[in-house]
Amino acid sequence: MKFAQSDVTIEPMKTVEKTISSPLRICDCGLSNYRKSLRLQHEMQGKRRIGEIPNTILIVEHAPVITLGARQSANKLQAGREELAKWNIDVVEIRRGGGTTAHNPGQLVFYPILNLRELNLGINEYIRELEEIGIKLLEQLGVNSQRRKGFPGLWVGDKKIASIGVRVSKFVTYHGMAINIQNDLGIFDFIIPCGLDNVEITSVLKETGKQHEMNRVKERLKELLIKNFSDKRDFPPTVQRNTKVRLPSWLRRPLPSGETFKHTEQVLSSLGLETICNSANCPNRGQCWARGTATVLILGSICTRNCKFCSVTVGKPAPPDPTEPERLAEMAKKLGLKYLVITSVNRDDLPDGGAGHFRDCIKTVRQDCPDVNFEILTPDFRNCQEKALRILRDALPFVFAHNVEMVPSLYPIARAGGNYQRSLDLLKMAKETCSNIQTKSSIMLGLGETDDEVEQVLKDLRNVGCDRITIGQYLKPSKESLDVVEYIPPAGFDLWGQKAIELGFSWVISSPFARSSYFAERQDSV
């Protein structure tokens, strides 16, 4: 194994500073002994807490070392310390989050010493920022990586390529992230990484077969760090991150109950069907299920995108389940449905974006329940819009819905992989391809948009022939999601509803609890 060689040397500390409007110092520490780097982190973290130094990020490669985190149950070694010493591998116990991990030359490690309060970041948001930096860096190096819910770090399919372990004291961070570029992966044979059994570790070199100049990789990392952790991040000035806003009285609802609610829940559970009601933590679940209605989520519950307004799990989805259409038909019969709303996660992995599965579900339900009317809420069918719409023509008639979700200035923050014009194009194409259908969209308020931006979105939707609109309050569905900037009072939604009617929408629901499928079965708007 390469890391056993005796000619590994420790380079002297090298500091390179980047001058930007918001003070951020980036230090390239070269190949650094882990214990030395740990002492430096502790020293700098203390100075940052009292304001003696600006936000600082250390970039290093380490001589071979195994570190044990604060979570003892996740610290699992496959060899004794005496054997590790024979391979010149140091073992260090530290207080960061997570379990056992390993570092060696060719692995890129960075340690941010940042004041989260000054950056308006919560801990979960900070970890997602680290993951986003890693995703973008790996993408530049030819590797497509993903998050995995509940497991901080980055994955390439089922293989782990980057680890995160952080600690925060009095709002200041230390420890950080390690990304495998071209390091010898043999060191991971001595541990169970992060306490996860049977996890394969990979690297950029292993995935692509390409070597990279580490100094160039570091320069790319520095550019991403500056973009993400300076005051020049691309957030509209109206958006205040991590702002704590109390939930107003008009957005409080009793817990769901009642026999119809329980029956709906039992039917969905017995048939193994997913609903967007659960996956997106919809606040209307109790009210809708009590009416015997639900919005069914087909094509699995794992999305290929990572929108920060949404709580749906991100990762690598399974292939479409061929039994799902039959189970959907059985649900429609048991619940006696007259109106069925079908939606899905983004399936960028499928050549038709999942359109064929939508069609199969509608046709199968229609065979057993010919009186059911359908509404589908589709993803944007990135790269296959024309193909998807040709497939869906066989499933008419239905309401065709696709959500623009928010004003376009918020897309870089909240809608990963989305494109405002692409969404408008899909609605326009749907209207032109199937002229006898109603098209529908939805927008959320409370993310920092302006009134002029909202009005322009409504006009844009009418310009592409959109017939129906729902306007609702954004509610934070999970701890990792974007914070609410503003709660719009009911009177504000009344005004937007009136504006939508004036612009020519034939069906409008505008209220704090409005969602795309809220009262979708009603022929007239409320």
Question: What report would you give on this structure?
Answer:
The protein is an alpha/beta fold. It contains 15 helices and 20 strands. The chain has two domains: 228 residues, Bira Bifunctional Protein, Domain 2 (BirA Bifunctional Protein, domain 2, 2-Layer Sandwich); 184 residues, Aldolase class I (TIM Barrel). It has an eight-stranded mixed beta sheet with strand order 11-12-15-16-17-18-19-20. Strands 1, 2, 6, 7, 8, 9 and 10 form a seven-stranded mixed beta sheet that branches. Strand 16, helix 11 and strand 17 form a beta-alpha-beta unit. 42% of the residues are buried. The N terminus is likely disordered.
List keywords for this structure.
526 residues, 8-stranded mixed sheet, single chain, TIM Barrel, alpha/beta, 31% helix, 2 domains, disordered N terminus, 7-stranded mixed sheet, BirA Bifunctional Protein, domain 2
Quick summary:
By secondary structure, the protein is an alpha/beta fold. The chain has helices at residues 34-49, 81-86, 123-140, 204-208, 214-229, 259-270, 276-279, 285-290, 324-335, 355-368, 385-392, 411-414, 420-433, 451-463, 490-503; strands at residues 24-32, 55-62, 65-68, 90-93, 101-103, 107-113, 153-156, 159-169, 172-180, 200-201, 274-275, 295-298, 302-303, 313-314, 339-344, 373-377, 398-401, 439-445, 468-473, 507-510.
